[in-house]
Structure formats: C-alpha cells, structure tokens
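Section 5: illustrative case.
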C-alpha cells in the first residue's frame, strides 16, 4: 500500500513541476497559470483516502498478520514457554527420588561397597535414600560419586546456553 501512496505523491510533484516549467517557458510573467490549471481540473482524491484508510488499519493491527513459515517470531521472547507452572495438580511430582530436585538433596555419607560406590542422601521429606551413578531425579541424574562428593547432572531450561545441563557438586554435610 505504501508504494502506491509514494507513487501518487511523486506523480503529483512531477505534474506540479512540469506544469510550472511549461508555464514559465510559455509565459514567464504569469505565475498563477499552474494554480488556475489545477483549480479547473477535477482531481480524484478517493484513491488517496483509500490508501490512508489502509495505512490506519495496518497501524491498528486489524489487517497485518505474521506468517512464520517455519521461522520463529522475532518479536517473541526466547524464554517464553520455559516458565515452570506453579505447584498444584498440573505439576504433581512422582513420589520418592524420582520427584526430588537436585537442590533438595543433602549428601549424608558415601560408602565404598563390593558392588560399587554409593551415597546416602536426605530428601525434602526427611527420608534417607541410597543413590548410585545413573540414579534418576526429577530435574537430573547422578553423574558420578567420588569419596568426598557427589556430582549431579542437572537439566537447565535456558535457550541461551550451549549445553542443556549443568554439573552440580554436593559435598558431605554434617
């Protein structure tokens, strides 16, 4: 719509410019000739009003719509959709270790057994659990158990990060 409006303006300026040049060459003393020529001709302004109405509709948002064609909307936040919903029926966690967050666990002790190394942790429900490397949690898993600390791999919902996880180290607490 805008090119039509610009084209109309350019045409009107050209008509005015060539009209004055022609009038000056024909009669340099008469400067009222172009004004009189425009006053006698009927100028159709309905097209200009239609263009202005179209621009108002675009500015008000009644006509324009964004077609992504497989691309993301550049005006939407990258973090939209990554917010965690509030606690409640929509966010019910499974019972036990599968429902515990990495931040909610406290490492109580580490034991080296013939079957491998394991750790005792205290959960948010004040119950002790035994974890081994590979134990799944609500937002991560146990990556490695060392003699004095446990390394968790926590899932991170941040689209700006290169890796979708973060290693969290918890040491034995008294």
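Designed sequence:
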């Amino acid at each position: 719509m805008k090119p039509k409006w610009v084209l109309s303006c350019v045409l009107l300026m050209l008509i005015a410019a060539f009209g004055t040049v022609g009038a000056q060459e024909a009669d340099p003393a008469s400067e009222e000739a172009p004004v009189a020529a425009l006053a006698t001709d009927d100028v159709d302004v309905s097209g200009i009003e239609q263009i202005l109405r179209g621009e108002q509709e675009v500015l008000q948002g009644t006509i324009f719509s964004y077609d992504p064609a497989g691309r993301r909307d550049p005006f939407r936040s990258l973090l939209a959709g990554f917010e965690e919903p509030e606690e409640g029926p929509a966010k019910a966690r499974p019972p036990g270790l599968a429902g515990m967050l990495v931040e909610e666990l406290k490492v109580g002790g580490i034991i080296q057994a013939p079957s491998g190394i394991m750790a005792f942790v205290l959960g948010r429900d004040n119950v002790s659990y035994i974890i081994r490397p590979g134990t799944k949690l609500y937002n991560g898993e146990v990556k490695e158990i060392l003699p004095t600390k446990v390394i968790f791999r926590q899932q991170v919902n941040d689209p700006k990060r290169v890796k979708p996880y973060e290693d969290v180290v918890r040491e034995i607490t008294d």
